[in-house]
Specification:
By secondary structure, this protein is α+β, with helices and mostly antiparallel strands. The protein has four helices and 14 strands.
Amino acid sequence: MCILFFHAKKIASPGKFRLILVSNRDESLKRPTKHAHFWAECPDIFGGRDLQVSAEGGTWLAVNSKSGRLATLLNLSTKTLNPNAISRGNIVTDFVKDPSISGREYEAKVAEKADQHNPFHLVTFEILPNDVLINYLAHLPSGGSMGPIDLLQTDEVTESISNSPLPTPMNKCKEGLKLFKEVIGKLDSTECKRELIEQLISFAKTDTKFWPDPILSMRGELEPLLKSYSSIFVNVPEKVYGTRTHTVILIDDVGKMDFYESTLTENSKGDLEWLDTHQTFDFNY
């Protein structure tokens, strides 16, 4: 039950950020995963990889460090999954690898074959010299698609997305958005970058239960553990499931990106421990 928060501006004032993004990936804590890294077959791409056999090579979030594009995918909740569906992980991979197609064009292309996949949200970001383009597509549990939708139609936007349809956010999206806005309201400055990253990681670890939640309550198949999924940081030890990756992405007014990831990995003893990765690069405008 992943969650995404982002704040974006078409043009940032000097010393401000054009994009501030926080993502939590919720997954089985034992699912094989490689932390964020430059990909051997495509060295401009930086992001984590899913190593599960059925989804090997896919990703939930990645960035093209040269072209200024990134994308993230979140599952949309559904009571019944198609066991024969094509993995969703390559949807992000294909977008960041191909700078020749715009986010809107790519999402329209994905929508044509969305029924091959189980339900999902896809958000694409294109960081251009004088603009930021953010497009959204959903393949809905009821069938059909929502989008592509331009999420940045004004000068700036602050948004949150989890595993319910965009028009019906869970409480943790609505309440979390308030907390997120408090952080960026105080620390949206390149001079405060280190503190901003620390505060955003702390925010991503919020374990307050935003319960009861009428939207989440529709997930009857998760009973009797529904309340455990109502926080931004999810921990369901009964299922060996929870938040296993935090990602913070900052892009400043001159195109410098900081990509910070903290992910649970298995050490040599078979125990899980948090591994931090921090990479910076400049987009080649």
